[in-house]
Write a sequence for this structure.
C-alpha cells in the first residue's frame, strides 16, 4: 500500500498475541489526519485473549448479576414470592427445546467448547426471552378466563410476570457469556 508522503496520516496496526511475543497482523489501516502535522504517528492496538482476564471478567459479571437479583428479591419482599417451579420449567424447557431444534443434541456439547459456544448462547439468549413471552401469554389467558373469579387473577398475573423475569434473566446471563471477539 502506497502512502502519499505529503499527507500526514495516522497508522493503526492491530497486534495479536502469539506465544510470548506480539506479532503485527499484515493489515494496516491508514487514516489521514490534520495537515499541520509533519510526521507519521503509529498506534499499536493490542487485542486480549480470554486467558488475559476477559474470561474472569465474565465470571465476575455473572456472579454480580446473580447477587444483584437475589439481593433485590430480599429487599423487595420475601424471596419465596419470586420462586415458581413451573415458570422456571416453562422458560428453561422451551429454551432447551430451542437448542435441540437449532443445534441438535450437539448444542449441549458445544456449550463446553469455547470456539463453538457463541451460536448456542445466542440461541439461548433469544429463546429464553421468547419463552418468557410464552409465560406472559399463558398468564394473560388465565387472567382473561378467570375474570369472574377475582381470587385467580393474582396468581395468573404472578405467572405472567415471573415467567418473563426468568426468561429475561436467563437471556441476560447468556448474553454476558457471548464472546464477541470470535
Amino acid at each position: 500500500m502506497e502512502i502519499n508522503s505529503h499527507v500526514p496520516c495516522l497508522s493503526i496496526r492491530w497486534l495479536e498475541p502469539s506465544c510470548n511475543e506480539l506479532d503485527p497482523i499484515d493489515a494496516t489501516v491508514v487514516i489521514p489526519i490534520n495537515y499541520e502535522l509533519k510526521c507519521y504517528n503509529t498506534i499499536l492496538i493490542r487485542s486480549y485473549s480470554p486467558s488475559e482476564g476477559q474470561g474472569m471478567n465474565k465470571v465476575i459479571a455473572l456472579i454480580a448479576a446473580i447477587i444483584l437479583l437475589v439481593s433485590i428479591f430480599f429487599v423487595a419482599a420475601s424471596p419465596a414470592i419470586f420462586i415458581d417451579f413451573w415458570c422456571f420449567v416453562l422458560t428453561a424447557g422451551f429454551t432447551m427445546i430451542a437448542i435441540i431444534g437449532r443445534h441438535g443434541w450437539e448444542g449441549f456439547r458445544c456449550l463446553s467448547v469455547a470456539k463453538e459456544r457463541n451460536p448456542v448462547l445466542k440461541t439461548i439468549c433469544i429463546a429464553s426471552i421468547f419463552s418468557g413471552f410464552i409465560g406472559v401469554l399463558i398468564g394473560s389467558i388465565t387472567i382473561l378466563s378467570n375474570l369472574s373469579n377475582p381470587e385467580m387473577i393474582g396468581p395468573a398475573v404472578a405467572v405472567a410476570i415471573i415467567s418473563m423475569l426468568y426468561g429475561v434473566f436467563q437471556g441476560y446471563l447468556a448474553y454476558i457469556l457471548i464472546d464477541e471477539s470470535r
Remarks:
- The helical segments are 54-76, 85-103, 106-110, 117-145, 153-177.
- Residues 9-47 form one domain.
- The longest helix spans residues 117-145.
